[in-house]
Amino acid sequence: MALSGISHHSSGSGVFPALVYVQGSEQKNIVLNRTPFTVGRKVDKDLVIADPRVSRDHAQILQEGPDFFIVDLGSKHGTFVNGERIQRQKLDRGDRLEFGARDSAYILFNPAHATSNTAREFLSQISQVHIKQEATDLEKLTLFLEAARKLNTAGVLDEILMTMLDVTLELTRAERGYVFLKDDEGNLRLVAGRNQKKEPLLDDKTISHSILEESMRSNSEFVRTDTSSDLDLAGRQSIVAYDLRTVVCIPLRKMQIQATRDAQTPAPGTHAADAMGALYVDSRFASRDLNQVGKDILRTIATEAASLIENARLVQAEEEARRYQQELSIAASIQQRLMQVKIPEVPFARLRGKNLSCKEIGGDFFDAVNTKEGLAVVLADVSGKGVSAALLASTLQGMIYSHLSAGMPLLEVVTAVNRFFAEKMGGEKYATCLIARLRRDGELEYVNCGHVPPLLVCGQEVIRPAHGNVPVGLLPDASFESSSCQMKSGDRFILVTDGVTEAENPKGDFFEDFRLEEAAVQRPTLEGIFSAVTEFCSGNPLSDDCTVVELCYTSAE
Length: 557
Known about the structure:
By secondary structure, the protein is α+β, with helices and mostly antiparallel strands. Helices cover 32% and strands 26% of the residues. It contains 12 helices and 26 strands. A 6-stranded antiparallel sheet has the order 2-1-11-10-7-8, with no helix packed on it.
């Protein structure tokens, strides 16, 4: 069943039967809301299976009355139901369908819901009330609302909608009932259909769409139990063409009751939210007249249905958020493995690095490569945060690592990376980076591309080299320059991202460069620098990733 705001292929088996398409470890739910439902290799099929063993026009699912059938269309490799090759077969709930490629993909037809026993009992109660002709409308409504609340906790919205349609048809003595909901574009879409025989209705072509649209446009109920007595309706094309005598259309909305200045409560319907859809019923014969109580009951049913649908949307949103968090956790794990730095051991230097991400995945990274020319270190910060920044950071890291491993000069590395990013991203994304290479004799060459100036700590003195270039990715033809200095034993070259200098305390003050310089001298370890940042923030969360890398020259020995 397709709900507005809920993915068309994610709601499981709805009022319409559902197909679960399984391919390897992946699966998706498909609502069977039209027939014939076609399967094949051609791109115009309802379900396209790109496998050479699947024929272009392989099979189709048809509805005949309340039953559904799978029909093979003369496929070369056959259609199978529960392992047996068929030409035509009636489908039962849970049947497994395979199309030629039996080892790679299959369909489950209308799998069973995991509905609680309590919910089933309430549905049974409602069915029993329907049989009792002496049952009052209020008795039916009471049972319906109680069952709806129980069922809603069990997460079976499709049974609720079916029950709602059954109660509505019983109340109005109408022949057909439909539920329409707005999709993301605001267009009405049929999500549930039912007749008096409790058979699913998949086609809404023979209803009065003009009345449906009029009711939605005015956001008001439309109730006619005998259209022949209404001259305006008697001339409508759909009313005449389909011989409709009873038409009831009620918008689905959650009432927003507001108190007036004199503390009086307005009448139901006075203050109503925009309709999310509509409950529609009709018949080819005049129905019994609905008194005010009956109309109020219909309105209550529609309001309750709107509330249940809204709850389903919230549940769906929570589920999607949970899945998104799971995907982020997986992505973070992958990123951490990809960016896991194996610190090279060299006799003339000591290297350490640490990162604190403000999100599960981020755009900061550092890496190190031991080459014939010396120990190379890179620290980069891709613009933006989250998934997009992480993807670009992974690409950037791979490019720089491979170029450094090949022994390319630093200027050639940043030139190649800049050209690639500028051409691929068109200047929309960029990265600041600082690449340095320390030779055995203590000579340090570095290229700063828009990054926070590094710190060269010599004893108690801090030097901030001002040399810099534009970030990579902004200008495809940008030229870059490098600089160099001579390090002595014990000197430390510290690289940080701007998440360190721009860390904020509760007052909104930045950590800034001068505090970083003080921490580098007074707390000469990575842990000391991060402790200084944490103390300064005083519990205020980080707004950007924080990375600190320290390269210490020991000696040429």
